[in-house]
Amino acid sequence: MKKITAFAGGRIDFAGGWGDGCTLIDPKGEYVLGRVCNVGLELGSQVEITSFENEGVHIVCNGFDEILNEEMDYGGDLDLFLAAIKRFGLNGLEIKAHSHIPYGSGLGGSAAMAVPLTAAIFYAIDFSFRKKAKDGPLPYALKEKIAEEARALEIEEMDISSGWQDQWAAAFGGVNYIYAENDPQKPKREEIFNDKKSNKALENNLLLVYTPKNKKTRRSSSAQHKNVQKIAKLELLSDIARQGEKAQTALRKLDFKILGQVVFQAWETIKQFTNNSASSAQIDWLIKKTMDYGAYGAKACGAGGPGTCVVIIANKKTQDKIKKMIVKKQGYKILPVKISTLGLQVGEN
After folding, report:
1. Is residue 110 very low, low, confident or very high in pLDDT (cuts 50, 70, 90)?
2. Are 206 and 189 in a shared domain?
3. How many domains does the chain have?
């Protein structure tokens, strides 16, 4: 068996998160349909699959080294891999994986691992998928299939509630408007742009800042969607969806001032929706400080803090001022912003 290698990236969510995959029905009997604006990153995860001479599946990932089989129970650090083993009946394989996304960063790290893992497995066990993958870049339908299956690892196998924006961003990369039209669980994806000039302009107007951990526990996506069901803040969810639409409109025009304003509004709505539990002292400080320094707007990525903040900046002068301020703060780190133009990649060698 040749070595199969797959790679996919994380994402920055500008607006619309917390509403993707929502199953809440409004008083009119209609679903609250998610609308998300995000961008796929090259910062991501790689998975390699080869044959393994013994029984079970040998997993080597970010310091862990274990042999798993489908009879084992969940509850360990490698549950995502165990879910894949159970779902696809895997045996006699070695899976080596590595994530470059900081743990708990809010950059969709779980999906950035699940998507290449799923793609590599399909490449290994599905002849039709392997043939199409060898013929060139994966077509839309196959990327969508991998995104759906990667999400199913969490929802169906691990019984974890999850939205869909992370898996779609990992599979497709690029600058995205992802929305549910009729079925809240069946998103569609529009590419906002993918030309070098626009990508570079966006990269130059973003800063990605990783904040230090504190004692506060990060909210899981499961808690996120249970919160939706419990609180039923329909108006806020509708606001979140509208902000996703506004963000994509601003991006199409490369209007970073409006984008920054929408991003900040989205963060304020998320804080209101979560009764401020999505934030942390570090994130509050960073957002206020960067905007005092001239940023157009900022928000925490994903489910909130502690984690990573995206900052929409006005120009290089503002960027340099903010960078100098950040490097002086212990525990804060600037992460690279490079747009993934290809999304999921899979092949063998």
Report:
1. very high
2. no
3. 2
180 and 38 within one domain: yes
Say yes or no: 190 and 231 in one domain. Answer: no
Is residue 105 scored above 50 in pLDDT? yes
Whether residue 100 is found in the same domain as residue 117: yes
Please report, for the domain that includes residue 85, its CATH number.
Answer: 3.30.230.10
pLDDT beyond 80 at 228: no
CATH code of the domain containing 260: 3.30.70.890
For residue 20, the enclosing domain spans 4-194+340-348
| pLDDT (tens digit per residue) in 28-41 | 666 778 999 999 99
How much of the chain, in percent, has pLDDT values that exceed 70? 91
Q: Are residues 174 and 316 in the same domain?
A: no
Average pLDDT on 113-142 reads: 93
Q: What are the start-end ranges of the H helices in 126-233? A: 127-134, 140-152, 165-172, 196-204, 221-231
Question: What is the pTM for the complete model shown?
Answer: 0.92
Q: Are residues 211 and 147 in the same domain?
A: no
Which of 104-108, 166-170, 328-332 has the largest mean confidence? 166-170
Are residue 22 and residue 131 in the same domain, yes or no? yes
Asked if residue 11 and residue 141 are part of one domain, the reply reads yes
The pLDDT tens digits of the residues spanning 157-172 come to 999 888 999 999 999 9
